[in-house]
Design a protein that fits this description.
Elements lengths: L3 H15 L3 H16 L9 H6 L12 H5 L1 E5 L2 E5 L5 H6 L1 E4 L6 E4 L2 H10 L1 H10 L3 E5 L2 E6 L8 E3 L23 E9 L1 E4 L9 H17 L4
Antiparallel strand pairs: 1-2, 3-9, 4-8, 5-6, 6-8, 7-8
């Protein structure tokens, strides 16, 4: 028959063996908690942001890249949950973005332009349009594109302005009526963008209790690996 003292010693030994592995046991649960925090509720997205995101109106959701990037580092002393993506602190704590080298920030007018400019870069995307015969017009609050005849649509179609008397404009060379000018809004230009704080990199009280309960269970009942 095992004495109480021997059972206590055995339990204490098991806990001491499991303690160095506690952080590694709890860290994945901590990652899951942070990922669940991304579901909100949060301040709603602005209308333009909604139109540019795959997830529409849902804050902190687009391609799933940020959620998938949440990871951890653990050792015998504890664990840290975080993300290697440079934009994570901004969307967590909020802040104001301003252009560093250019005169203004340039924001795609549509989701399709967003994808193209992300893949090519804004400069290269505009260069490709120029090579295809587009005329790029920089305005204080927008970047516009005048499309050549036969070109596919890009961005948001704008209404062409007729002459003051309401008749179509004529070309200088032929005096004939010009083909309807197709003008598109490609990018918005802004001096700054304010991103509201949406704190998800945190463990709420109920999540802390969950981790404590899991830690106690692991130390007292878990099996050493």
């Amino acid at each position: 028959m095992t004495s109480g003292s021997e059972a206590f010693k055995r339990a204490l030994k098991g806990m001491s063996q499991r303690l160095p592995k506690l952080a590694e046991q709890l860290a994945p649960l901590g990652v899951t908690c942070v990922q669940l925090n991304m579901d909100g509720p949060f301040v709603p997205n602005a209308p333009l942001t909604k139109s540019l995101k795959n997830g529409g109106a849902k804050p902190l959701f687009d391609s799933g890249e940020t959620r998938a990037s949440i990871t951890y580092v653990a050792d015998s002393q504890g664990f840290v949950v975080g993300s290697p993506l440079v934009h994570t602190p901004l969307i967590n704590y909020g802040g104001t973005l301003k252009a560093k080298r250019a005169k203004s920030l340039v924001i795609p007018a549509t989701r399709a332009i967003k994808r193209k400019s992300q893949a090519l870069g804004i400069k290269r995307y505009l260069e490709q349009l120029k090579d295809a015969g587009w005329r790029i017009v920089w305005r204080p609050k927008a970047v516009l594109g005048s499309a050549p005849v036969g070109a596919g649509a890009q961005g948001i179609r704008l209404k062409a302005k007729p002459k003051a008397d309401g008749t179509p404009k004529k070309t200088r060379k032929t005096g004939q009526r010009a083909a309807p000018r197709r003008l598109f809004l490609l990018f918005y230009r802004k001096e700054s963008i304010t991103v509201p704080a949406r704190e998800f990199m945190v463990l709420h009280e109920d999540q802390q209790r969950l981790l404590l309960d899991e830690g106690r269970r692991f130390l007292t009942k878990g099996k050493a690996q």
